[in-house]
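Notes from the 1:1 (GR / supervisor)

We went over the backlog. Supervisor wanted to see one worked example end to end before approving the batch request, so GR pasted a single chain during the call. The sequence is below; no edits were made to it. Supervisor asked that the structure be written out right there so they could see what the output format looks like.
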Amino acid sequence: MASLGLGNYMSEFVDSTGVLSGFGVATQEKFGYLANRIRGRFNWQISKHFNTEIGNHTNFWGNGYRSMVLGENTTPYPYLKLTTKVWKIKYTNLFMQLRDLQPNVSWKDSRQKYVALHAIDFKVNERFSFTVFESVVWQSSDTLSNRNFDINYLNPVIFYRPVEFSQGSADNVLLGIAARLSLDKNFMCYGQLFLDEFLLSEVKKREGWWANKVGIQIGVQAANLLPGFWAYSEFNSARPFTYTHGSVLQNYGHRNQSLAHPLGTNFYEWSSGAQLERNNWTFTGRFNWALYGRDLNGDNYGGDIFRSYRAAF
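Structure output shown during the call:
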């Protein structure tokens, strides 16, 4: 639990979203904001090839400072993670239970939703590896049914899009790829491409079709340029409406916070940082620059992942 006095920019964030980043629902007290966070996890190495983990925590997927797939800026959530390592392949299944917190709705009345995410990481050699991932977001209930956790998504080896179509559902399915290249033992390049919706034919038209919802990351890291010195620089971007869905309950977020990048959607960001360790001292510096768009005068321009894209423009 934390009681914090915040700067103006953080106070504005809490007042507009009702949550404190990384914690959860925040209430204003006399000297600041009160929020709580309960975290914990249990990990079991079943065998040489199989590992399982259960907890109430966050998860981070990627090689950079940010992630366009899954970051750690949300409040903790219950999850189950299964990891299988065979040969050069690492296969991960992650199942999460989330909450959708709508405006003017008590956190006790927030509605449940679920995410099933899996990723296949293939280590080509000591220098290069790539990952293919897919996730699906679905609400626990709607006006037609009460689904809760859909057992069809428990199958650990299938892609979710065929299951979604076979169930006749309109769940939010997202795809992506990531890659990492080590030029030598001290220098690495990495990137992620996140596809919410994408039509190559619309890209070729160059008309800026709104539903080409894409997130991208490109970055570099360098270590030991000097003894104890480490640095990185990366670029992140998401087109408008990325991570949104026609049903607001099926956005890619949890308790008014994005599951991926903290800026949510419709942004460009450049982030760089460095760290130096010398004689029990650690010096760290970071620079972030961002250009982002938000909705104006009640109109939906794709700047808020917690609004339905059906109400756009």
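Supervisor's comment: The chain has a mean pLDDT of 84.
Batch request approved.
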